[in-house]
Amino acid sequence: MTPADLLPHPEGGRYREVFRSARTLPVEGVRGGERAACTHIYFHLAAGEVSRWHRVTSDEIWNLYRGALRLWVWEEGGDPEAVELSADENRYCHVVPAGVWQAAEPLPASGGADEALVGCTVAPGFDFADFTMLHEGQPTADGLTAAAPDLARLLAPAEPA
């Protein structure tokens, strides 16, 4: 898998969907009323790239394949938490519960470049209709910035008026 094999992702970085279950599940409160049982993507962040603050309506499992990654998770009203996925930490996966804000950035890896290749599994499966970005100037973004001013760098630019 090379970055050339991947497509730009709205949150930053690049991705390619590699699995979408043919089995569907009924899901209340979502457009269409059902989702694939499970989806899986490859997701790559090169040096200097970030995955901006976003959330999805399903649980998401991050699995590290190459490099190292700092995954940020934040529940409104609390403090953001950092989870490092790396060989140095001997931690290769983390589950982000449905509806929790998340962002990520590659870290320097032992003997490697500042990049990360991960797999992201979402169940019930991912649909862009269930994806929300956190933009500068939104009230929720103001709450994040108040809790952790240094993490405002991971917000998406303000939406045009």
Automatic annotation (TrEMBL):
<feature type="domain" description="DUF985">
    <location>
        <begin position="5"/>
        <end position="134"/>
    </location>
</feature>
<dbReference type="InterPro" id="IPR039935">
    <property type="entry name" value="YML079W-like"/>
</dbReference>
<dbReference type="InterPro" id="IPR011051">
    <property type="entry name" value="RmlC_Cupin_sf"/>
</dbReference>
<dbReference type="InterPro" id="IPR009327">
    <property type="entry name" value="Cupin_DUF985"/>
</dbReference>
<dbReference type="Pfam" id="PF06172">
    <property type="entry name" value="Cupin_5"/>
</dbReference>
<dbReference type="InterPro" id="IPR014710">
    <property type="entry name" value="RmlC-like_jellyroll"/>
</dbReference>
<protein>
    <recommendedName>
        <fullName>DUF985 domain-containing protein</fullName>
    </recommendedName>
</protein>
